[in-house]
Amino acid sequence: MLGIVTAGIAPGLALLSYFYLKDQYGSEPFSIVFKTFIAGALLVFPIMFIQYVLDAENVLQGRLFEPYLAIGFLEEFFKWFILYYTVFQHVSFDEPYDGIVYGASVSLGFASVENIFYLFANGLEYAIGRALLPVSSHALFGVIMGYYMGKGKFSEGSSHKWLILSLLVPFLLHGSYNYILLTLEDWLVLMIPFMIFLWYLGLKKVKKARKLSDQHFENNLIIEKTFISGK
After folding, report:
1. Of 103, 76, 134, nearest in space to 206 by CA
2. At 93, is the secondary structure helix, strand, or coil?
3. Rounded CA gap, 37 and 97, in Å?
4. What cellular component terms from Gene Ontology apply here (predicted)?
5. 76-101 burial: b if 16+ Cβ within 10 Å, else e
6. Residue range 57-75: average pLDDT?
7. pLDDT tens for each residue of 185-211
8. Which of 21, 79, 148, 225 sits at 20 to 30 Å (Cα–Cα) from 172?
9. Is 15:135 a contact under the CB 8 Å cutoff?
10. What beta strand segments (E) does 96-185 contain?
């Protein structure tokens, strides 16, 4: 049992540590990151129940509805909801890159519990494959969601466009991942290039978020110097 729990949670913690440690302007409070991770973990239970009901009642089933709506949209919406209503307005969310950390945290909390359940049901031999596909894909969906959340919070003008993209883009990517996995017979042929693209996109968003944080702190420094000299 301990081996399954360890194998289930280790990939998520490793990926979260990677994105957490890349925050160059001071790491986020561990307590807030931990709470976000736990919130994501707890999301598994209501989502599993809703998906069970949808399946039992034959609602949103089919080649497109199930991968995109019953799984992709449902999971990404709940993660987005947690991020927006618990972290977006929090004082600790004080630079664009923070969205990456919190987005990865809530997604990896969800992915870790989901992974533990899967390994309990199917065996420890699936641990490596689960780490490479579902866990890492959830992490990257969260990174992309967090990137657009950070853009929304710190961009001038209306944040609505970025907040919509913070849900829309991960939903479409998650749905496409599910579509490849659930509906294609030779799914691995397309999954490999899809995961390469997903990693490329996710790491590109990380790089952009760090540049936005650089600009954010430079602007704050200019404002602070102007204020001091004005006195």
Report:
1. 103
2. coil
3. 17
4. plasma membrane
5. bebbbebbbeebbeeeebbbbbbbbb
6. 92
7. 899 999 999 999 999 999 999 999 999
8. 21
9. yes
10. none
